[in-house]
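Hi U.,

Before I forget, here's the chain from the pilot set. I'm dumping it here mostly so it's searchable later in email.
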Amino acid sequence: MEVPTAEQLMSLPPEYLAQDTSHVLLRVTIAVTVITTFIYTVFLVSRGFCVERNNPEIWILPALSFIFCVGLWSLSYVLFAHGGAGRHLAYWFLTDPNVIVTYLKIQTAAEFVYVAACLFPKLTILALYLRIFTDRVVRIGTWIVIGVCIAHALGNIIASFTICQPFEYKWNKTINGHCANVMASYRWVSIPHILTDLAIFILPLSSLYHLVMGKRRKLGIFLTFIVGGLGVITAIIRCVNFWTIDLESDPTWYAPTLFSYTIVEPSAYLMCSCFPSLRPLLRLVYKWTRVKIDSQYGSGTGQSEITLKHLKGSHRSSTSALKMLSKSSSNDDKSDFIHLNDSVDVDVSPPYGVARV
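Structure:
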């Protein structure tokens, strides 16, 4: 980042100095925050109330993913409010140079938070592969990708710590120090990042295609990976921007675009890792809605079967009754009642035995 001279600053036109695109970053951050938080909340409800058994990684990895995504969103808000995002660097040299220091501090913090925010959703998805797939090739490939992802994350952290000597020189240019080619590090570390993204996306496709399951369920799984594909596309666009934009020439001006991609990518992976766990809740809502419709309007034969099932657990009990619908509900005071037959059969599944009433 070069410091312009006073003559260069004074020669800039007022229209150039008045340009401001910070609203782009604010809108993207709000949208990503709301959508991702909603998906994660539904994920917690689904896993907590509709699934009997949850392995520890089901709670730990998505929670860490969400925490680091919140960290990125918070940095984005601070970058909008205090980091000078959206204005040209020359504007801050003329009005408030301390904003530039704040921007560089936020950028430094984002480098570390971004690495973790991308790593943990990937580990969540890969842990899902290990639970679902039994194919030996897929499992070996999954463990290899896990190792590459962790090694790549550690490499990014080490590079961020060592690229400037001393470390403080990254944001404090008044002290003696030097930095290596920061833009080159941004560009080259993005390539392994994209390769691991593509590996995660491609790895299970063959097994998914040959899975024996209903078309609706298979479509839902493929849609999950399509959402993950959005994260891959975002990572590619972010990498291309690093190659085509000279960030150091005007970092505050380019910040809204680059930081928007930075927060969208890990958020897309977090949502992708949550989607498979939403199915039990969606299935329950579908059945509940179907029962409500059947009980209100009845089936084509004038009868409606109402089934009550225990919400949680593998051992379920059910009670069935036929509701006879009246042809004229306006004059029938009993149209809202369920008319039972002479007997009701109640089956209780093992291990409690079988009982009949």
